[in-house]
Amino acid sequence: MRSIIRDRAVVADAWRYAGEAGEGPEVLSLDAFLASAAGASSAAGTAVILQPTDEPEKLIPYLAQLALVVIDFPKVGEGRGFSQAQLLRQRCGYRGELRARGALKRDQLFFLARCGFDSFDLDPTEDLAASLAAFSTFTAAYQRAVDGALPLQSR
Amino acid sequence: MYQYDSIDRTLVNERVAQFRDQTQRFLRGELSEDEFRPLRLRNGLYIQKHAPMLRVAIPYGLLSSKQLRMLAHIARTYDRDFGHFTTRQNIQYNWPKLEQVPDILADLASVEMHAIQTSGNCIRNTTSDHLAGVAADEVCDPRPWCELIRQWSTFHPEFTYLPRKFKIAVSAAARDRAAVAVHDIGLHIERSASGEISFRVLVGGGLGRQPILGREIRSGVQPADLLAYLEAILRVYNRYGRRDNIHKARIKILVKALGATEFARQVDAEYEANRAFAPRVEAAEIARLQAFFRTQPYAALKDIDVLAGADAPFAAWYRHNTVAHRQSGYRAVFVSLKKPGVAPGDMTSAQMEGVAALAERFSFGEVRVTHDQNLVLADVPQHELRTVHAELSALGLATPNIGTINDMICCPGLDFCGLANATSIPVAAQINERFDDLDYLYDLGQIQIKMSGCMNACGHHHVGHIGILGVDKHGEEWYQITLGGSATNDASLGEVIGPSVAKANVANTIARILDVYVEQRQSAEESFLQTVRRLGIEPFKERVYA
Ligand code: SF4
How far is CA B493 from CA B88, B205, B212, B461, B463, in A? Predict the structure, then answer.
């Protein structure tokens, strides 16, 4: 079973991505999720994965039944997921688990967390335990973001 | 100038620690080249032709003497005793060692400097008017706004992995000295009849392979809403800018594809939808920043007749390398980094230290970097000008050629840059040699030559009155000439005059172009650019290819 970081701890992942073998409830693509109308619920709730071009606003009618939203970062340097996350957390008001997955290392954790991600499925080569320190790379921030850090511009 | 508080200092120090760790992980093989590249780039570190190249940020081109001394120290300790000032008001070092870069960054941090976001697909150093705060034609000092944007854009969590680099320039003067029309976002600060300031916003300007001038998408943006509006632009770009093709990833391509009107509509919609979450610029915060840029404590001096009894070299330097100041008894002095035989923008450690000392003695300890690769001592008392001239002459920094064709903008080209098609520095030398008669240069008046070694256009050739672009023809260096470009209020892109010319013929070609100008100008007052605009390129073309 895959290990991920959730709430700043290394834990086992209960979910299975679309197309993956094994146990656990499946994370659906946005199309599959929307096609199944309200989405196929499971005991753990419903989960969906967004690709970089997917519009997070489409999830607004279903937020209450979503237990997990995964945002995919298929390539090094992909950056749309940062905006998708801020939109989901702020404009859409999503409060459930929000996971970043893909070509990510500890170097992106600080910014991902600021945009509202609380779980992370990093590149398989990354040392997860050693990565936890990256959440405190910076102890201040100049901008307001999802994490609510006090914007220095009002110091 | 802006002084760091403990928070700014902490952030920069934490960045040094982060990059030290990343460099070590890369050297240990824990980060692949692909993974390390975007991380080193956002710390200004390129892998160039001969060695890494480190680009250090000089926010809106403003330096203290202490900072300039540190730049000299870095050039001497870690490089080959010189640095290169760029068109984005930054400095580049061409020979640092990768392992030493974290130490260089630590040295920079000790004087409130850094290399944060000087490269990579993120928001770059904000640039501005090199005469900010002393120009007679400005509506307010743009630098507090630049500092606000610097802070907002530093480590912005949402915009650290944009489709492509992103450059912002700010001008608050009637005459645009910051080339705002060729930036991803160009801001003009305007003042209404009732004294309120607001921002006029241009988007989608840029040079490179597809040169385009920025389009105005909004005016009247209120100070409190500035960052909210910038966030809306950046978010639309981050979501919808192309990422499939590096040559189509700049915001200009998105603006062009959508049309400026539709792009503006999307930005406005995003801006409205995001009101509840967007940053507001508090009046107290901007007042805090403005306090760092108060007018200098000028002495009560009267204007004097500086040229009375002056010798010819001083008089030439005074006329060409100094400009009027809004404070009586003062003058702004250009430090020419365009001495013939030296690569444009290059400066040795000793020269940097010399200028740092002059700034301390005569210009409140501050130096500015211009976007055409010179330095400025902005606040020199007129009665000290002779001393300043003598000392700059001794340093080799008083060539009286500011604004002439020898005051060229020139990228590093094939001598240093891995992307180049052709050299640019030797061509600059060729032009310098050919046009060594200063009286002829003065007679020609203001002519900007801008030269790039490839289509990436770091030398801004499209907006040179005369643009020179290096191209590769079957392994040989050839040069394409454009005429009629401009980067200021009347911004325009130059027109190609015809087939490219061989390296040995560049200066000859320019001589022919200048002959046409001298013959055809209607009066001594008609500038080269005006003549080109009046006549079009035909007569120049005929002469060049005759
Ligand atoms: S214009 Fe081309 S050759 Fe010149 S510095 Fe830029 S990338 Fe290098």
Answer: 19, 11, 8, 9, 5
Asked if the interface predicted TM-score (ipTM) of this complex is over 0.90, the answer is: yes
Residue A94 sits at the chain B interface (C-beta within 8 Å): no
Facing residue for A105 by CB, picked from B35, B148, B285:
B35
Would you call A139 an interface residue with chain B, using a CB distance cutoff of 8 Å? Answer: yes
Q: What is the pLDDT of residues B341-369, one digit of tens each?
A: 899 999 999 999 999 999 999 999 999 99
Bridge partners, residue B199, by sequence: B189, B221
B77 domain-assigned: yes
Between the alpha carbon of residue B149 and those of residues B3, B227, B402, B505, the distances in Å are 15, 8, 30, 44
CATH of the domain at B505: 3.30.413.10
Task: Read off the pLDDT of residues B19-44 as tens digits, 9 standing for 90 and up.
Answer: 999 999 999 999 998 899 999 999 99
B331 and B205 housed in the same domain = no
Which option is the CATH number for A3-154: 1.10.3470, 3.30.1490, 3.90.70, 3.40.50? 3.40.50
Does a structural domain hold residue B401?
no
Distance from CA of B278 to the nearest CA of A (A): 8
Q: Which helix (H) or strand (E) holds B201?
A: strand B197-203
Chain A residues touching residue B274 (CB < 8 angstroms): 90-91
Same structural domain, B420 and B447: yes
